[in-house]
Structures are given as structure tokens and as C-alpha cells.
């Protein structure tokens, strides 16, 4: 029997309005409501997006009275309650507490050529994938646009200030933390716009450095393709056959593998961006050689060899889970077989196993 899916978050109050919830026109209107001239909105945005500053007291080019008024547009949204590092300081995981006590997580990672943050789009998740720590906990609520942007801004500050060992510029954002991004569609798309628009309208991070993941919400994939945002789409497929995917990814009961791959092809054709296929390799579940062969064949036929890349993920087991990572020889053979079909296939760098880096593990501790 398939598990229930929750597409609509429970009705819980979103946080107070924040500058990052607003587009440039809305910011000017909000500032006017405070009795201030419109150019103050641009000044405030320049501090927040350009200088990564969210403290009005540090905005000394603004009159003191204006700072006090504008403080209402920068309410504290997510506060760190637990931070852990590992991998020699190259991985930093943060558990955030929102205004209503809900928890979300992000992970900041240093690579030789970039700094990447993995952010959450929901508190919890309603997709009910049984091997995922977040899916085991269910969905609490959607995150607001600003709550998502704040994860990115604070990660950018941490990277800039040397939290990863050396000062770095944040260049890559992946929506692969807690939640199904396309189930919080409007706020996620708005957050992507804030992240990618040049300062002072946004953080000025290249859209080509942004990846949005999905378990396969077909109508939302098609809608995203029309947004004019050249972000990478990552489809969490995890198996090429419907029989197993109905269990591993319950949304497959609504949109089958063929429908998901067709939507991925449409996305690639429309945007010109290669689609990433995420595949968590699970011991004795989805790691059989015949599944590797079928995966390669289906991707070549239904998306196109040049339009797709497989990102193989060694499973990060959660405490008490029956699921475990595949042995290295099995993983290597799986990669070889996918590549033999002419499909690019790489193994994701394993990070943060000693700090409960699988999404949802920190939140599940009740910290």
C-alpha cells in the first residue's frame, strides 16, 4: 500500500513580512507605507542583498529615525539553534528555529572550486519517501520566501567570513534540504529570483549555480520550465521501474516514471539545461545490475544522452533505519553500466556522515 502524500502544507501562520518576500516595486510601496521616500527601499536592499547586512544599526548611511522605521522590514526569521562541523571544517550544518518553533536545516560545504549551500524549502516533507529522514517526520509547513533567502544570505556571510576555513564567495545553491521544493512552488520560485537577481534587487548569484530538486511533480516541472530561470532541475528518481518506485517514491502512484522522464526532457529542451537524475543507491533494493542497465537505456531513449546526467548518491543511513548504502564494488558496477549506455554518471561526494547530515536528522533530534 502506498503512503499518503501531502501537497498542501498544514495551515500555519507564516512569519512577518520581510524585505526578501518583496520584489523591488513592493519594497518601495512598503517603505512608502512607513512614511519614507522610495529611495530608502533601494538603500535597504543594497545593505541586505549587496552587503549581506541585516542589522539596521550597522546601516550608518541611513538616518537613525529611518533605521528604526525600516527595522520592521527585517524581522528575525530563522535563528541557529545548533551548528556542527566536520570534514576538517569543510562541512557546516545548521539547524534553524523559525518564529513559530518549527525547525529546518541547511548545510554549507566547501569544495576546491566553490562554496555550496543546501537549503530547505519546507519544515518537514509530505512526500513520505521511506528512506528519507525528513519524509519520516511528515510536513509541518511551507517556508516563506524570506526564510529560504535568509538561509542563503546567512550561508553567504559564513562563507565570506571564513567559517569553512578560508574566506569564500558562495556560488552554488541547491534546493535539496528538507521538503519538496515544487510543493512550495510560488515561494521557491520567488526565492530563486531573489537569489539570482543582481544587487540590489537580489543576491546576484548566477542562476546556473542554482539547482532545484523534485521527486517528480510533473505539472510543476512544466511550469518551472516556463519561468525563464536557467536553473538546473534535479529529479529524484531512485529507480527506473514503476513497481519499485511506487514504494520508494510514493508520488509515483500519481505520475509514473515515463511521465516524469517526459517532463524532464521538456525541461531540458525548453531551458537548454542538462537535467540531473538523483539516484540514492540502497543496498539490495535498487542497486541491481539490471536496474543500472534499464536506467541508462531509459534515460538515453526518453530524455537524450546529452540532456541528462546521473548523480549517484551513496545512501546516508538514518539511525534505526533498515536502509543501508550499497557496497563500493556494487556502486562501481552500477556506474559502469550506466556509463556504458552513454549516460554521464558520477558519484556524489559523501559529506557529513558524522554530523547527521542526511536531511531531517538534526530536526528529528528535537534540539
Automatic annotation (TrEMBL):
Gene Ontology BP, a term: rRNA base methylation
Record carries keyword Transferase: yes
Annotated SMART domains: Elp3 (SM00729)
Enzyme Commission code: 2.1.1.192
Root EC class: transferase
Catalytic activity: adenosine(2503) in 23S rRNA + 2 reduced [2Fe-2S]-[ferredoxin] + 2 S-adenosyl-L-methionine = 2-methyladenosine(2503) in 23S rRNA + 5'-deoxyadenosine + L-methionine + 2 oxidized [2Fe-2S]-[ferredoxin] + S-adenosyl-L-homocysteine; adenosine(37) in tRNA + 2 reduced [2Fe-2S]-[ferredoxin] + 2 S-adenosyl-L-methionine = 2-methyladenosine(37) in tRNA + 5'-deoxyadenosine + L-methionine + 2 oxidized [2Fe-2S]-[ferredoxin] + S-adenosyl-L-homocysteine
Binding site for S-adenosyl-L-methionine: 179-180, 213, 236-238, 316
Note accompanying the cofactor annotation: Binds 1 [4Fe-4S] cluster. The cluster is coordinated with 3 cysteines and an exchangeable S-adenosyl-L-methionine.
Compartments, as annotated in UniProt: Cytoplasm
Reported function: Specifically methylates position 2 of adenine 2503 in 23S rRNA and position 2 of adenine 37 in tRNAs.
Family: Belongs to the radical SAM superfamily. RlmN family.
Name this protein carries in UniProt: Probable dual-specificity RNA methyltransferase RlmN
Organism taxonomic ancestry: Bacteria, Bacillati, Actinomycetota, Actinomycetes, Pseudonocardiales
